[in-house]
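Hi,

Apologies if this is the wrong queue. I'm a grad student, and the batch job for Molybdopterin synthase catalytic subunit from Tenacibaculum pelagium produced an output file that my downstream script rejects. I'm not sure whether the problem is my script or the file. Here is the sequence I used:
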Amino acid sequence: MNTSIKISSEKLNLQECYDFVADPSCGGIAVFVGTVRNATQNKSVTQLDFSTYRPMAIKEMQKIADIALEKFGVKKIAIHHAERMLQIEDIPVIITVSSPHRKAAFDACQYAIDTLKETVPIWKKEYFEDGEVWVNAHP
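Support response: The file is valid. Your script probably expects a header line. Output copied below for reference.
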C-alpha cells in the first residue's frame, strides 16, 4: 500500500506519517505540517473547529494521493487531517511524501495541500475573542 489517508478526532502524529512514507529506495521525504496560527485578517484567533463530510473527504483525499503517485512518480504519500476543535499551535493537517528524488517529493507535497484546500469537503470555523466565522464554507 502506497497511501495513508486519515481523518481523525485524535491528535495527528507526525512520526506516524513520516514512518509510513520512509522507504530505502527513496532519497527524499517532503513534509508539510499545517499549524493553527493566532491571527488572521488582523484579528486574534483563539481556536479553530474543523468539520468534514467524512465519506466524501476520504474519497477526495484518496483521489489526491492517487494522482500525486501517478503524476509525480512518488513512492508513498500520507495525508492526515484533524476533525475537531484545535488550539493555537495544534496541527490540523500533515502531508508526507517520499520519492527517489527531492523535486518530485516537494512538487507532490505542494500539489496535495493545494488541492486538498480546494476540493476536499473540510470546513473551518475560526473563533475570535468577539465572535466566530466559518471560513472556506465550501470546498
